[in-house]
Design goal:
By secondary structure, this protein is α+β, with helices and mostly antiparallel strands. It is 33% helix and 25% strand. It has 18 helices and 27 strands. α4 packs parallel to α6, α5 crosses α6 and α5 packs across α7. The protein is elongated, with a radius of gyration of 28 Å.
């Protein structure tokens, strides 16, 4: 008898181990009760409810339409199905909050309409343009996003439906959708990738709603339940111990939504899995790290493929911020982001955030931090660094990327840098060539120039060797390699430094790049400048092209150049074919400068040159682009031919001001007038920096010893300069 009772309990336990009540995914019964009890108390919550009601009311008035899919991204049917899943979920939550049956009835009719349509669908007619076509959408990724929303909507109206309706929706819609994701698109479901995360989230959520343990376990542990794929494996492989996501911040912005929604669902249904603590709390670290990977106005830094207008106000980040604040850590900086977003989730998490903001707990400003984020699942594959100066809207930032390639959305841009000032990109990264969801631009997909230009090395602020991209453009090889971190220190805001090395991008060429954000202790400099030391070592001669892409208008260069009156490309392949060669010249002096203006400030690059040998090329993107897919952005290239080794030493200096109102131009000439290479060998690289007022500074960095107690010395003008530690930045007197 005891065995019989135990067996019954086990069976009952297996049956009820997940969704014992509805709703219980992200939106829960408890969450609905908290929202009801706090209506009228917190403006952000009330605003979010009002927006959801307005959106749903407009669509209820139009009537339900579930069209046969036919269009690519941006087309009518594509956008209609996107709107449907969004409105359906909002209506389902409003039913739980208000108890007004017309919301539940709207969701019921929508789900039944999809249950009627879905079994009739084959592969999407535009699927030929996708390697992984869907049914409702041109790519299966969008089908997975649809399922994530539909499962939550069904969870909310589950108890409103009768048994026949539930059976119809489950068998003809939800289970078929899961089968498509988990079996027909098994290569995506078992993929370590953002597409895989969305597919996993949709299947897991559906499994929790349907009390299907097998479905849930396959989503968490992989289709073979061997933990080689699935949700946990994605966390293991895609995220570093610091919370950095290998595809970069733009793609974490997208991947964080299924990641945090599924984590929240697991926490609500299987808290014993301690999902937020998994892999040393990687998920807990990823959201603050993501917010830090933004420019001074909150737009995500364009590491790898990126649409640069995306910011922390994006809808996906609302979920991340709200859940992180409620479930992980009540970090006030999360409240700042939530305040900028101007809305909260309709959930218990949203209530907590709205309450905290209503009580004035959000800080007045976001505190950006100088930091390094390690890349790779174990944190041993390079990383990215962000150097920050100031916290005002006029803050300054410099970035360097020295990590992994970043899978299919990666760029061949080892040791690339970016520079921000005035809340603007000054030295820019192109981001991506894509007009997302604009049907006329190839269905909103990535455009051919994304591969032929944007992903190539010459499109970035780094060195291209022999006019060939890193790894000869071989992305498979690039995925197997990474640069390595050498040194990072940002303990002093006036002297911040990062240095990294790479020996994999070009056979036989050793590269080390060091950038330092420097603020001399001298009133002559009202803002820091960026020192850039790019060291190349090779036994064989090469052509080295150091590119800087700048935002703004060209003012002046000391190099005498010839303007190209007939437009021609700068080369024939690996990105050069997309650069118009606008002008070129040769350095006549050992220092040359290039000045441009952006908004109210001037910027000058001063570079050590080899007279009669260093060439300057002024270029503009847009060549060989018959569909006008590329933006026309300007850049300069410092070229050195037939060189074995070369130290490109440059300063990027903000200076002066210009007022279009008063027409006053002040300080249009750079303060820094000369750089000099003092020594560059295996042990030390050192340069002097001379200002217009005659003062000079020495910057030196050890190249092979990061011991903070190590002693170093160099000879400078017949005198010995010694220091302890990795680097030194001091004023010098002759």
């Amino acid at each position: 008898m005891k065995r019989f009772i135990t067996a019954i309990l086990l069976i009952f336990g297996l049956f009820t181990c997940y969704a014992q009540k509805h709703p219980n995914l992200v939106f829960t019964q408890e969450g609905a009760a908290q929202i009801k009890n706090n209506l009228g108390k917190y403006p952000l919550l009330d605003l979010s409810i009002a927006e959801a009601k307005a959106k749903v009311a407009a669509n209820i008035a139009q009537g339900i339409e579930v069209p046969v899919p036919k269009d690519p991204g941006g087309g009518y049917t594509h956008e209609k199905h996107k709107l449907n899943y969004d409105v359906m979920l909002n209506a389902a939550m409003l039913w739980q909050i208000t108890g007004e049956k017309f919301y539940a009835e709207f969701v019921r009719e929508m789900l039944l309409a999809y249950a009627k349509l879905y079994p009739t669908l084959g592969i999407h007619p535009e699927g030929v343009n996708s390697g992984v076509p869907g049914k409702l959408f041109w790519q299966s990724l969008n089908d997975a996003v649809w399922l994530v929303h539909a499962a939550q909507a069904y969870d909310c109206v589950y108890d409103y439906l009768n048994s026949d309706e539930r059976k119809n929706i489950e068998n003809n819609l939800l289970r078929l959708s899961v089968k498509f994701s988990m079996e027909d698109r098994a290569e995506t479901f078992n993929r370590i990738h953002n597409h895989g995360l969305w597919a996993i989230c949709g299947v897991a959520m559906t499994g929790y709603v349907l009390n299907d343990k097998d479905m849930v376990e396959k989503a968490i542990y992989g289709s073979n339940k061997d933990k080689k794929t699935g949700f946990l494996s994605n966390i293991d492989a895609l995220f570093s111990p610091d919370g950095y996501y290998c595809e970069g911040s733009y793609y974490l912005r997208y991947a964080i939504m299924p990641t945090i929604l599924l984590a929240k669902t697991i926490q609500n249904n299987q808290p014993d899995l301690h999902i937020y603590a998994y892999k040393d709390s990687t998920l807990a670290k990823s959201i603050p790290a993501l917010l830090q990977q933004t420019d001074p106005i909150g737009q995500f830094l364009p590491f790898n493929d990126a649409l640069k207008d995306k910011a922390w106000t994006s809808g996906e980040i609302v979920y991340a911020v709200n859940i992180a604040y409620n479930d992980i850590a009540a970090d006030p900086l999360l409240l700042y982001a939530a305040q900028q977003q101007g809305r909260v989730m309709l959930s218990a998490d949203g209530v907590v955030v709205a309450k905290a903001i209503g009580e004035g707990k959000a800080p007045a400003n976001f505190k950006w931090k100088s930091m390094e984020l390690r890349d790779g699942s174990k944190g041993d594959q390079g990383g990215v660094a962000m150097l920050r100066y100031g916290q005002t809207p006029d803050a300054m930032a410099a970035t360097m990327k020295y990590g992994t390639f970043g899978m299919e959305h990666g760029h061949l841009d080892k040791l690339t840098i970016g520079f921000y000032d005035q809340g603007r990109e000054i030295l820019s990264d192109y981001g991506s060539a894509r007009f997302i969801n604009i049907e006329q631009k190839r269905g909103g997909r990535y455009l051919p120039e994304n591969k032929t230009f944007v992903n190539q090395t010459i499109a970035h602020n780094t060195v291209t060797v022999d006019q060939k991209s890193n790894y000869g453009g071989n992305t498979k090889k690039a995925d197997e390699c990474n640069a390595v971190r050498y040194y990072f220190n940002a303990s002093d805001e006036r002297l911040q430094i990062v240095s990294a090395k790479d020996t994999t991008a070009y056979p036989g060429v050793k590269m080390q790049r060091t950038i330092a954000l420097l603020q001399p202790d001298d009133s002559y400099f009202t803002r820091p400048f960026l020192l850039d030391l790019f060291n190349l070592q090779s036994e064989k001669p090469h052509q080295y092209d150091l590119a800087y892409y700048y935002q703004g208008d060209f003012i002046h260069t000391g190099i005498k150049y010839d303007y190209e009156r007939e437009m021609q490309a700068a080369g024939g392949s690996q990105g050069y074919q997309h650069l118009w060669l606008r002008a070129q010249g040769t350095a006549a002096n050992d220092n040359e400068s290039f000045t441009w203006i952006n908004a109210a400030r001037f910027y000058t690059i001063t570079t050590i040159c080899k007279p009669e040998k260093t060439q300057l090329l002024m270029v503009q993107s847009g060549a060989n682009d018959p569909e006008f897919n590329l933006r026309n952005e300007n850049g300069i290239i410092f070229r050195e031919q037939n060189s074995n080794s070369r130290l490109f030493a440059s300063v990027i200096e903000p200076h002066g001001s210009f007022s279009p109102i008063t027409e006053a131009s002040l300080g249009s000439y750079a303060n820094i007038v000369r750089l000099k290479e003092v020594v560059n060998n295996a042990a030390v690289t050192a340069v002097t920096i001379e200002a217009r007022n005659g003062k000079r500074w020495l910057f030196a960095i050890s190249n092979n010893n990061t011991d903070p107690n190590a002693n170093h010395s160099i000879e400078l003008n017949g005198k010995t300069v010694s220091w302890a530690g990795t680097h030194v930045f001091i004023m010098i007197n002759d």
